[in-house]
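>> received
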Amino acid sequence: MRTPGMPSKPPSIVIGSDGGISIAGSVVIDGHSNVSQRIRVVTHIHSDHTVNLQESISSSYRLVATQLTLSWLQVFGYSATNYLSLEAGDSIRLGDLRLRFLKSLHIPGTVQVLVETDDGTRILYSSDFKKPGEGTPVEEADVLVIDAVYGRPSYVREFDDYIEYLLVDLVKQLLTEGGVRIYGYYGKVNEVMSILRQGGVDAPFVLAPKVYMMTKKAESLGIRVGDYVLAGSRESQEVIRDGWYVYLDHSSRFTPGSRDASTLVLSGWEFRSPIRRISSRTWHVAFSDHSDFRGLVKYVSSVRPRKLYVVKARSSGAEEFAAYVAKNLGIREVY
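>> returned
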């Protein structure tokens, strides 16, 4: 809870065209800006949050991120020598500001960012998240900056609470018939590996090169996913011949018509059905790492901000979402 008292003027907040959030000229989050102290926070490795990152590195910005995010950035070719690793719950001092990371249920390594001033003003950036109040803890703040990925009222998935169980059951069923191929975004497939293991799927994972390198990095930090091999290796060829495996790769490499395996395509834009068969051996699975519209509203309602910024560069239906919360949640200052 915030300490009662007279509201104070919050530090300046500027949201750039690339989605970068500059606070008090001291720090920029998930974008690039000419800030005085040259601190850039990276909340996770997805491309819309690492936009213009090389420019920040070339300008000698100090990167602040979780250890897993920093390790995964190396996989994607970012080589920064000036960085600081923080985990959820950790904080650093930036002049008269304190920056603290909060856990976020999204892809592994993701965090929310809370900035607090000496006079008690709290500024919260949501980053990407799902299951607010459950997997994603929510704290109150005076100012909230939010990514409304599913900002339109029609973007509702009735099956969000149990899609993980359906995914595990489908994979188990298909493994009785042969191999299973899963395609999704980087980070999302890493999360799915953990979900499958927790659900009792013990078939070996065959991993495309980048997914394999990301898994190696995660394993070095103590994140275990069981038996896995590199796609294209001799060992992977033997595993595939046995016909009992789960292959994982980025969604851009999905090609329909695989004859040797069942194929699952993970999509956050499937709202009609949790699992939809699109061919004899291919399914769309409505697995998302983002809260739907109802989850976004729940998050904002829990934070109880006096002022709300919707990051248009990373939102769908930003204006609709802003209008909805202004009307229904009584937030008078919405941008």
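>> Helices lie at 53-58, 67-75, 163-175, 188-198, 209-220, 234-242, 293-303, 318-328.
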